[in-house]
Amino acid sequence: MDESQLRIDGWRTGIHFDAAHLIPHHPKCGRLHGHTYALHVVVHGRIGGNGFILDFGDVKKALKAIADRLDHHVLIQGKSPEFTAEEAKDGVRFAVGGKHYHIPYPDALVLPLEYTSAEHLAAYVADELVRAIPWPAEVTRLDVGVDESYGKGAWAIRTLH
Length: 161
Hints:
By secondary structure, the chain is α+β, with helices and mostly antiparallel strands. The protein has helices at about 10-15, 55-70, 120-130, and strands spanning about 5-10, 15-20, 35-45, 75, 85-90, 90-95, 100-105, 110, 140-150, 150-160. It has a domain at about 5-60 and about 110-160: Tetrahydropterin Synthase, Chain A (2-Layer Sandwich). Strands 1, 2, 3, 4, 8, 9 and 10 form a 7-stranded mixed β-sheet that branches. A 3-stranded antiparallel β-sheet has the order 5-6-7, with no helix packed on it.
């Protein structure tokens, strides 16, 4: 059988989170600000002998767990060439563009990213999703989207089998 797709829309299924971030040296986004993000996935694959590519529930559960980990945090780009985040017992300190920040724990969440842009967050979520599920051989590709608001986001693609 030809390849098929299953889709999960984060807005419609309630897979979203609220978080703050900043994009260093951007005139507007360089200020600390927040978004309501939604996570989406398109799973590409062949329909197996059980009549589907894989169980929607497994994908929704894993995607929701990722959203829950990111929810209500200040997302800090731990691998940024723009600044060095210094982690201390009480939180994370960093400076960028002449501004100094101290984000206390548990508000701070340092991610292994160069930037916390939608593009980098989509890649991060895609990699986390790949690790979270034992993907059956029928699944060939994942397209993972992160919207910063309704209708405005970025996608990352991961080839599996």
